Amino acid sequence: MDKRKELLLAVGLNDLEADVYMLLLNEESLTGYKIGKLLHKPTANVYKAIDSLALKGALLLEDKQKGLCKAVPAHDFFATIEAGLIRKTQEAKRTFTPASKAIYDEKSYQIQSLELVLEKCRQMLQHCQKIVVIDIFPQPLAYLLPEIQACVQRGIEVYLQVYEPIVIPGAQVAFPQFYPKVLTYWKSHQLNLITDGKEYVLALFNENMTEVLQATWSRNLYLACMLHKGFSNEYTITKINEITAETNAAEQIAFILEKQSKLSSGQVPGVLELLQRFGLQE
After folding, report:
1. Rounded mean pLDDT of 216-231?
2. Are residues 59 and 22 in contact, defined by beta-carbon separation less than 8 angstroms?
3. Number of folded domains in the chain?
4. 19, 135, 167, 195: most buried by Cβ count inside 10 Å?
5. Does residue 228 sit in the same domain as residue 183?
6. How far from each other are the two terminal CA atoms of the chain, in whole angstroms?
7. Is the pLDDT of residue 186 over 80?
8. Among 127, 110, 131, which Cα is nearest to 204's?
């Protein structure tokens, strides 16, 4: 399918509406009769599509008596759709108010929507209280960079393992020496994010970053703590590998290991809660 038509279907046009709109983008004004002839479609169906497109903001009726219509430029049409969607979602947010009593759910859930995975990650970063550990490929990082930077500005400890060199002021960033091979080997995009040792998303997307291959979200405290420890250990090993050839490597390694002990200690909210829940009670 033509990529343009695929996108028109994705924003709410049906098959015939998409064909009519794409035809008119390349023409001046046409009548429904002429459009039907060019598309080899019944005229009655074409006129229904024209009426629907006009209501959706995709067409202008130049002369209703003569049946002439003209396409709204694509940029303007998509801006109209975007504005309408924002208005509707804002109204929905006001209507569907949160329940007065939140239920803490420690089950694990599979997510199939790319946008929902990213939105979960944004919410987790916005609600993070102390520390976040992230293992992330370049394209997912581009989507979440504003929220990551906002975490840093709020004083959150941010630890990232990335696969292209990047500087994020205030964040602790490590990237493996073999990172080009990782990106070549994995014909996919990885996103692993753990906040406060309490909540996590593990996600794998396809090569074009258009489809979720596997994604899990959970607030399971034990699993979140174990993932926090595992990814923070990987971050630490990566940092140590970065400086092994430097003259003061031993001193730097000692500092990194001291920081790692804090990364796995009760200073992490999830670890502290896990100890309080299941540890030895005095």
Report:
1. 94
2. no
3. 2
4. 195
5. yes
6. 66
7. yes
8. 110
Burial 168-205 (b: 16+ CB within 10 A, else e): beebbbbbbeebeeeeeeeebbebbbbbbbbbbbbbbb
Residue 194 sits in the same domain as residue 61: no
Least confident segment among 117-126, 164-173, 265-274: 265-274
41 within 8 A of 15, measured Cβ to Cβ: no
* Cβ proximity of 80 and 45 under 8 Å: no
Mean pLDDT over each residue of the chain, to the nearest integer: 89
Q: Please report whether residue 82 resides in a domain.
A: no
Q: How far apart (Å, rounded) are the C-alpha atoms in residues 280 and 282?
A: 6
Whole domain around residue 187: which residue ranges? 108-278
Amino acid (one-letter) located at 65: Q
**Judgement on whether residues 112 and 218 belong to the same structural domain of the protein:** yes
Looking at 25, 57, 76, which one is the last position of a domain?
76
Structure tokens at 111: 């997510």
Quote the CA–CA distance of 182 and 230 in Å, as a whole number: 19
- What's the CATH code of the domain at 132? 3.30.870.10
Strand, coil or helix: what is 92? helix
Give which of 41, 43, 77 is closest to 58, Cα–Cα: 77
275 vs 147, residue with greater confidence:
147
Place of tokens 């979960």: 120
Cα 83 to Cα 91: distance, rounded to the nearest angstrom: 12
Strand partners, 131: 157
Is a pLDDT exceeding 80 seen at residue 107? yes
User: What share of the chain in percent tops pLDDT 70?
Assistant: 93
Q: What is the pLDDT of residues 25-75, one digit of tens each?
A: 998 889 999 999 999 999 999 999 999 999 999 999 877 667 789 999 999
